[in-house]
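Mods, move this if it's the wrong board.
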Amino acid sequence: MRYAETGYDLEIDLSTGNIERVERDPSLTETLLGGLGICVKTMWDRVPPETKAFDPENLLIFSAPLLVGTPAMSCNRTAVVTLSPQTNLLAYPMMGGFWAAELKYAGYDRVIFRGKSPRLVYIWIHNDKVEIRDAEHLRGKGAVEVRELIREELKEPNAAVCAIGAAGEHRNFLASIEQGRSSSSRLGGGAVMGDKNIKAIAVRGTKDINLADGAKFWAHMKDVIDYINYRNANPIPDVMTILSGIGSPQEMVHTDEKWHTENFMWGNARTRRRGFWDEKISVEWPKTQLSAIKRLISCFNCPQHCGALISFRDVPRFKQKCFTKMTYCMGAYVDDLAFNFSISQKATEYGLDGFGTPQCLAMAVELREAGILTEEDFAGTDEYPPCPPAEDKEGTFYWLLDRFALRQGIGDIMADGTYWMGKRIGKGAEVYAHNTIKKHEQLPLKLGTIDPIYYLMYTTNEKISITQIEGNWPQAAFPTMEQRERFIKDWPQLPDDHFKQYLLDWEPRGENSIPYYPKPHMCSEIVDWMEMLHNIDDATGFCCGMSSFCLKPPYHIHNIPKLVSAATGMDLDEAGIKKIVNRSRNLHRAFNLMRGMTRADEVPPEDHWKRRDHEYEEKLLDTYYLYKGWNLDGVPTRERLEELDLGYVADELEKRGILKNG
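Not the wrong board. Structure tokens:
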């Protein structure tokens, strides 16, 4: 009997229509746990480095990680793994909701798609019954609308449905995969789904998941639940409100957005608007937000309420969470929050990433202002009207959104993201794509002095998104020693107590402040800790808001191995789980190196910090690479790979001339 997992994958060849239920080797769980870890191994084994995102040979994998479907609270993530059309590297945007749990209860850990369907289809998985169904009647339907249409068609109101909108159908590089409580939004997973002609995947399961030792598992979970209740009742003092609690950022709960609106950048990640949050805005924005929220919502088996069902004026209902409640306002320089709730509903139906899309639209506005894009580019055709005049900011953004999602006119160039947009337009447009790492749009945040920890997290992590890698370490030094001592007093999540001294010595100004403190070796340790937690989450299925992302979370390196052991029957300790996720991390890096990634790609946006020290940044990168067991090119050494039982990876890297001299 398999515990925690089902032990089976669903293999679907879209080109032939062949469907197979395949038993998976149990040793993969022992060596990679599940979720992202096993998916990376599958991609390594089956997708050659020469494969491109839209090739039939590319795989699209939907994975329910190891502990999803167990009683572990907030363990509900789906890992969507494929090649990114934007970066040509591995993409694995995670989504919450109920989909992964339903897949587990249907009897599968993963659905692996290969090939391309000759027509638009959706997949219906109901326990042992799996069908490829025609979806031509759903073409062009919104990602929210289509989920309800499919439930009605199946007469199964409890089916979990993930779907793409028109943006995915048109292979927009920023296309998301939407489901009821969450979305898989970054790096173009929705574009690959559209390229394979999959409109949606519906799943309903009623089978059981077995635990190796249910009593022990529940005993550990009771401790977790007690801590969740404690943290909800006792926010962390001395940090900004958004960081004081647990769960994903509680943007739907909190209404005071002075920090975000005055510190995040407006337009094309361009302008900080100090003083924006004045007396008028501080009344109007909270009033608009509260009027828009019908109710707060949670993902599967989660006690937090990180999302909201939006019912705003005459706009059809949709879900929203996190910073997307203001990204379109800020991108368009529109001061009325009502605009954001209205346009983001349309963008959600199109199935678009709420972080990158506003930057693409804002870059087009800048290029229009600069004369690089001309009024010819904004003219109408038989298909659509001309763009409103530039002073109509809201109308311009709506017009650009339509062109962008549907790849119409100038939107066909915009739909590849800001990096490729600049390259394709030329005429100096390249410099306007100033907020990317590895060709992918970043958070619209520009700061003063370089932060060495964030420098490493931004540049080196395979997620290519700071919102998915930052975590347990405070974002800034506490001003007073009293505050620092209070913070470290109750910090059981630390992997080692010596981190406490790093925080005690960290000061806002002076010798022990950024950019030269924490010192490079300390930064390497801290970033490695953050990465380890995120890799554990992505293998097990925990929401990072309850583990790797927030300060002092319920799940951490000391209790997750106990939960995994009780669930699976594996004898796993902290050293064991660290080795497993290091194995996954190094295999993942090798996969991307094989696809052409180099040290030269690991740089932040040039204007991310005003005050830079490029020589010191190189020292940071050198120190981090060596700490990880990599050479100064960022390639894992043979010794490191063999320590992790990845000798076959070293062989391949040497064969291709990527790893030299061991």
